[in-house]
UniProtKB/TrEMBL annotation:
InterPro entries, A to Z: VCA0040-like (IPR007163)
Secretion signal span: none
Listed transmembrane segments: 12-34, 55-78, 84-101, 113-131, 143-164, 171-190, 196-215, 227-248, 254-273
Protein name in UniProt: Membrane protein
Keywords: Membrane, Transmembrane, Transmembrane helix
Superkingdom to which the source organism belongs: Bacteria
């Protein structure tokens, strides 16, 4: 019943979901399982729930393994090599855009309304970045009721975005200043520090609600307003640069490392998109 060959696919989806840039939805698209993935989520609360669980459980297991094993690596780089790490994220985001242009069939399908949506997406994230002040140290994360509610709402928004082929849920967390806190909490939890459990529970509940609620909406939008939805995604991808950009590197060595890391991040996303293009997956 269970397709355990999907565990490695889930692992890849989990890795990219940790990175503010490429979403697990994008990876599902690149792996050729996006329609099945979205459809299975929307059928969780239907009479077909057994088939949905059989498809999703191996993916969830793979994603969980990736999140638990790779979060400490990302936490290290975020804490000790902030600027190059963010330049890597920028490269991964921009590397997705050629694929999005291709599946959007821009030259044929886009009109003035589509380009207006792109501009609105850029402006929206630019305005959001203006209100996104410097996040406090992750280890000083608050656990008051207001803080936990913020993590819960962030989880809902992040889950809604992660289902879209292009927008990462972790990018939403980064914009809202919660991403370093979540990565820190996961890392501490794997080190058996259970004091961070309220953070993980709040975010986790938000993610569950967001996934179940957003899957039907996104399926409807992609089915009935496909290219308008893609235009909005492209605008959000471009606009996300305002949130990810960490500033300029320092010194010649800093510049060289950041540029190389940026090119690596761009190449990873671009090559995945190119392989998806060869496979003919829509």
């Amino acid at each position: 019943m269970f397709n355990w060959k999907n565990v490695p696919k889930g692992f890849l989806m989990g890795i990219v979901e940790l990175v503010p840039g490429v979403s697990s939805g994008t990876m599902a698209l690149l792996l050729g399982i996006y329609d099945q993935f979205l459809g299975a989520i929307s059928r969780i609360v239907s009479k077909y729930y057994k088939q949905a669980i059989a498809f999703l459980l191996p993916l969830v297991i793979g994603m969980a393994i990736a999140i638990l094993t790779m979060s400490s690596v990302l936490d290290y780089f975020l804490q000790n090599h902030t600027v190059p790490t963010h330049w890597f994220f920028m490269g991964m985001v921009l590397g997705v855009i050629p694929m999005m242009f291709r599946i959007s069939n821009v030259k044929v399908e886009f009109s003035a309304a589509h380009y207006i949506l792109i501009i609105l997406g850029i402006v929206l994230l630019f305005v959001m970045s203006l209100f996104n002040g410097e996040a406090p140290p992750a280890e000083s994360a608050g656990m008051a009721v207001g803080d936990l509610f913020k993590y819960f709402l962030t989880g809902i928004l992040a889950a809604s975005m992660m289902l879209l082929p292009g927008i990462s849920g972790s990018l939403v967390m980064l914009i809202l200043g919660v991403y370093p806190i979540v990565i820190y909490a996961i890392n501490e939890f794997t080190s058996l520090n259970f004091e961070v459990l309220p953070i993980l529970i709040s975010v986790g509940l938000g993610i569950v609600i967001g996934v179940l609620g957003a899957s039907r909406i996104i399926s409807y939008l992609l089915k009935n307003y496909t290219y308008l939805t893609y235009a909005g995604i492209i605008g959000l991808l471009f606009g996300s640069m305002f949130a990810i950009y960490p500033g300029l590197p320092e010194g010649v060595t800093g510049w060289l490392i950041s540029i190389v890391i940026f090119v690596i991040g761009f190449s990873i996303s671009y090559l995945f998109g190119k392989e998806q293009n060869k496979s003919g997956t829509p």
